Amino acid sequence: MSQTITLRRPDDWHLHLRDGAMLKAVLPETTAHFARAIIMPNLVPPVVTSDQAQAYRERILNALPQGADFEPLMTLYLTEDTDPADVAAAHASGLIYAVKLYPAGATTNSASGVANFDNVRAVLEKMAEIGLPLCVHGEVTDAEIDIFDREAVFIDRVLDPIRRATPGLRVVMEHITTRNAVDYASAQDDTLGATITTHHLVINRNHILAGGIKPHYYCLPVAKREEHRLALRAAATSGDNRFFLGTDSAPHTDANKLLPCGCAGCFTAPNTLSILAQVFEEDGALDRLERFTSLNGPAFYGLLPNDATITLEKSGASYPDHIATEDGPVTVFDPGFDLHWKVL
Ligand code: DOR
Ligand code: ZN
User: Fold this and answer.
1) 204 pLDDT above the threshold of 90
2) Residue in 51, 248, 307, 338 annotated catalytic
3) Which residues contact residue 132 at a Cβ distance below 8 angstroms, ignoring those fewer than 6 apart?
4) In this structure, which ligand is nearest to the CA of 172?
């Protein structure tokens, strides 16, 4: 008899769904396995106001596959012009679950992000007052800082000062990639959480650069040295309630990835749970998988875990290497090993 594992239905605490034809094509890959997801607002133009978030939520609901049971948890994109009253109203109405901070220029569609943090002080204070989490893309953008150091420098120069200046502000360090981030998060109180992606548990920077450049492994923050990957694995599999899954599944067409200046992002929605089950099994932590995928995230966001469950069976899994969209194919993340666990 093959081995099975049953989990409360997982949530994805960091997801890019895009819009239009891409939204329609990628949404079923998430709703097949996940009950809820924190939806990133980095559209073009970005989702800045509550009206824009409301309209985007409706587009997502309209794109849901028939019978899907899925709740998009909306976010607003923080700009230096964001109105604290609009944020508070969007939170009070139950529309939004977080505000996203992109340092200006840090990543895909982040040009409208924050350059001068003094200009978002009033919004952050309002968020601390009402208990609304700030999701942070934690990389400095200074050209003179090495790309592999940008997360560690951000923690010292930006994140820690913001948290000290705004007591009580709930912060999610998004898609952490370094031992520095794990150590920082581990030393904080329960106002701090950290998401970890599937791909950063699997690849290090050699996978991107050794033996030929692999554009499908390029994402931001970029994968770091092996010692950092191992620190992320230890944090994810520890069961520590500060660490939870945010896939950062970020679809781009192959045409936009395979360019002299290709886009950042790994598309992991289809096979994330298979990969995670294997990672946790390898590390002797299958009994802690549910905390990472289904329990720690809701607890941080003050939500109940899902009542429904999903079951995975260890009987061999296969996934398409790409999914078709009207805009062209999107390559599915290749973990580089055969997958044993499949979602039933
Ligand atoms: O790799 C990434 N892709 N990192 C991000 O922060 C943004 C994302 C995207 O939107 O494509
Ligand atoms: Zn992201």
Assistant:
1) yes
2) 248
3) 87, 88, 91, 96, 97, 98, 99, 126, 170
4) 2
Q: What angle, rounded to 10 degrees, do the helices at 84-92 and 50-63 form? A: 40
**Helix, strand, or coil (residue 202):** coil
Q: Using the predicted structure, report yes or no on whether residue 232 has a pLDDT greater than 90.
A: yes
Mean pLDDT of 112-120: 90
Distance (Å) from CA 3 to ligand 1 centroid: 35
pTM given for the model? 0.97
User: Which of 67, 68, 84 lies closest to 76 in space, CA to CA?
Assistant: 84
Expressed in angstroms and rounded, the spacing between residue 198 Cα and the centre of ligand 2 is: 12
Report pLDDT for 263.
97
CATH of the domain at 331: 3.20.20.140
The pLDDT value given to residue 104: 86
Atom 10 of ligand 1, nearest CA residue:
108
Question: Which range marks the domain in which residue 304 is found?
Answer: 4-343
Provide the 8-state DSSP code for 75. Answer: E
* CB-defined site of ligand 1, < 6 Å: 16, 42, 107-108, 137, 219-220, 250, 264-265
How confident is the model at residue 107, as a pLDDT? 72
Average pLDDT over residues 83-103: 97
Q: Which atom of ligand 1 is nearest to the CA of 265?
A: 1
Question: Percent of the chain beyond pLDDT 90?
Answer: 94
User: Does the pLDDT of residue 106 top 80, yes or no?
Assistant: no
Work out the pLDDT band at 61, boundaries 50, 70, 90: very high
Domain tally, the chain: 1
Nearest-ligand number for the alpha carbon of 250: 1
Q: Ion ligand 2 — residues with CB under 5 Å?
A: 248
Can 248 be counted among the known catalytic residues? Answer: yes
Ligand 1 pocket mutation, candidates 109, 172, 220, 327, criterion most atoms within 8 A of CB: 220
Measured distance CA(249)–CA(300) in Å, rounded = 21
Q: What is the pLDDT of residue 246?
A: 98
Å from CA of 130 to ligand 1 middle: 28
